[in-house]
Amino acid sequence: MIYTTGLVRELMLPMALTICYCLLASLIIAMTVVPAASSTLLRRTKPKAHPWFDKVQDVYGNILSFCLKVKIVPLLIAVGLLALSIWQVIRMGIVVIPDMTSNQIEGEITLPEETSREAAYAAVDEYLLRANKVRGIDSIGVMTGNGSAMIAAQASSSESNFLRYSIMVTTENEKAGAEEVNRIMADLTACAEGLDLTAEYSAGMGDMSALTGSGMSITIYGDNLDTLLAISEDVMGIIESVDGFEDISNGQEEADQVLHLNIDRDLAMSKGLSIAQIYQAIAGKITTETDSVTITLDGEELKVKIVTGIDPLTVENLMDYNFEVTEKDDWDNDIKVDMPLGSIATVETQDGFSEVSRKNNTRYITVTASAREGENITLLSRKLEPLLKQYNCPEGYSIDVGGESESVNEMVTQMGLLMIMGSAFIYFVMVAQFQSLLSPFIVLFTFPLAFTGGLLILWFTGEQISIISIMGFVVLLGTVVNNGIVFVDYTNQLRIGGMKRRDALIATGKTRMRPILMTALTTILAESSMIFGDDMGSQMGRGMALVIAGGLAYSTLMTLFIIPVMYDILFKKAPLSVDVGSENIDDIPDDAAEFMAEMLAKKEASSQDAVQ
Q1: Could you point out which of 391, 457, 560, 608 has its C-alpha 20 to 30 Å from the C-alpha of 102?
Q2: What is the rounded (10 degree) CA torsion for 208, 209, 211, 215?
Q3: CA distance 430 to 606
């Protein structure tokens, strides 16, 4: 994770460091505390018989023997399940952060435009009385639409802020799960029944959405504002053609109409008027208020403003505004006459812009859209991008696709490179351990098995791929290889001891079946609390827990079959005996001799039964 950047690094680096520290601590404990404790606590332990598990091992040995003879069957099953899981999960789409609910519920109350101030306050008061009775609520905070505190004495602060209110609700249970929060939101929405208002609530992590860039964002760059506006409207039409988008906007819907006053400069100068004089006169007429004096009342300074509404300048009478100019009469005397603005100027009405944005001195307009409830922005982007590529932009203009889809692409790229780098590191470590290039290569076949299990469980549970679930795949890289290492290493030991390749594979599978299952089961049980939990932390980490549990379960099962099959295909030569470099270590028990003696005894017993 130290090689990642941006959002991936900010979210995943603390988790990665925590995992590293825990693994280092567990390694130290395994090398010190566990041997010391075992030498004391297991001193009087005696081997126990497990007849039921012995039967399971015999059944497994027969199935593995069949798989080694007909290798195409397990390989086709593994490849088929991998392809199916990839196809199904890709169809589900990808998100940056999974949906989560918190114990803070945000809402908005909206009243009709024709509602009077008194009626609005009465309706909101009645709504709040009902909301306070909802079970599970700790507190309710209310603010007016413009963000000021809702106090009746401040009602005169705005002409329309009493028509919209923001609500913040906190639950009594700080660890409230999605089910409880959804129930509270449904009850709060139902409180509006019979009242002339609407109430909408959400419990999502709004700050996370702002961090990851929610929805679709398409930025259009160019110089001419009118051309940018036309292109943005075309892009909005393209987005509307893709079913699943909503709230499509280019940010110019609330733009005002603009009056362009075109003054005949030469004619105005002939009348003795400059452009600056005309502008100052019109600006002064438009201004309807001015600061007069400041008075002190009870120790508090108050500013006095003079506001006039007499003969206001409007769009309708703008061209009738008169300027006093000097002209010559028939006797060449100077006289003062009124000249209307319309005699020296024309006016045009055009659509304005709510804002003009620039980046690197280049103007741009951004078109935004959100995904409809139940839709995935990544899947919608796949449908939209080919349509945008077909659109012909004028020369000098460009379209840049961003938003959540851009964050997803960056996340997938970085996490993909991270897994490739992790796989390479794991392979090099195993090469040093095995003193071989082939044995680690066989162990690497546990990776696709783990990915298959993780993808399948995501598909079965309906959990979308996110940065958290991809982190689960990274964790699996270092976990699933343990089973493969144990299997390949013990098989090599048996073959060095003199066993045939297939006999060694079957003996390894039956012997190492129990520790492999125990290792996987303990990890899966550890993840179960996050899988079945409903608080915000469980909702965020559920994808990773599912991937780890599903990947381990599937890879453990398939490792007992696929790894022996790949070993039998690739490792034809006898393994080399690696010198550990010390003569003081006790000889390793000759398991191969024991297994060969046991197999010979079984064959003799079966032959005697056949004779009898």
Answers
A1: 457
A2: 160
A3: 41
Kindly report the pTM of this predicted structure.
Answer: 0.69
pLDDT in tens, 163-199: 888 888 888 887 777 788 888 888 988 888 888 888 8
Question: What is the C-alpha separation between 540 and 467, in angstroms, rounded?
Answer: 10
Tell me the sheet residues that pair with 579: none
- Helix, strand, or coil here: 365? strand
Number of Cα atoms under 13 Å in the Cβ half of residue 420: 8
Strand blocks (E) in 372-509: 398-403
First vs last C-alpha separation in the chain:
67
For tokens 């088929």, the residue is: 80
Pairwise CA distance, residues 369 & 387, whole Å? 15
H/E segment holding residue 367: strand 362-371
269 phi/psi in degrees, rounded to 5: -65, -35
Residues 6 or more apart in contact with residue 258 via CB below 8 angstroms: 349, 350, 351, 352
- 180 and 535 in contact (C-beta within 8 Å)? no
The pLDDT value recorded for residue 49 is 76
Q: What is the distance of C-alpha 146 from the center of its chain?
A: 30
Q: CA torsion sign, 5 to 10 to 12 to 14?
A: positive
pLDDT in the model for residue 588:
46
| Residue-wise burial string across 440-456, b where 16 or more C-beta atoms lie within 10 A, e elsewhere | bbbbbbbbbbbbbbbbb
Report the greatest alpha carbon distance in the chain. Answer: 153
E strand intervals along 207-286? 216-222, 245-249, 257-263
Percent of the chain with pLDDT over 70: 87
Positions of E strands within 112-256: 137-144, 164-171, 198-202, 216-222, 245-249
